[in-house]
Amino acid sequence: MTIKVENGDICPMLGKTCIGLQCAWFTKVAGTNPQTGKDIEDWGCAVAWLPMLAIENSQTNRMSGAAVESMRNEIVKRMDMPYTPIPTKVTGIDSPIMLED
User: What's the pTM value of the predicted model, to 2 decimals?
Assistant: First the structure.
């Protein structure tokens, strides 16, 4: 048995049919669908866009977390390297330092 799912057109705020462009929440979204990778440029209710935008936000946060972890690992690796300062040796100076008045 196959169930066909279709979008409804009842506004949860008004409790009646969507009024489309007359509504302040009717918004155009352009970008890439985070689940399919397909380009999107469509109008719809801002409330209806929330699940897709939440998924995209979660993916972005995971990528940011991975970048921070990678940077942290590189910093830790470099901190493990011993630092040995090179001593500075001044040679070839025979006269004492003279201060002018």
Answer: 0.59
